[in-house]
Amino acid sequence: MSAETRLARRINRRYTSTSFWAICQVADIAKLENRSPLQNQLRTLN
């Protein structure tokens, strides 16, 4: 495995975990407010 590939994998792994953490934060905030955009959309459709 080349050094570039190793570096890319490390960056990708860190980026992925950060994205996951950010998504969790958004989900927690939506839960606290008890109104996620998706739920509002579903309510509008029904």
From TrEMBL:
Domain of life: Eukaryota
Protein name, per record: Uncharacterized protein
Source organism of this protein record: Emericella nidulans (strain FGSC A4 / ATCC 38163 / CBS 112.46 / NRRL 194 / M139)
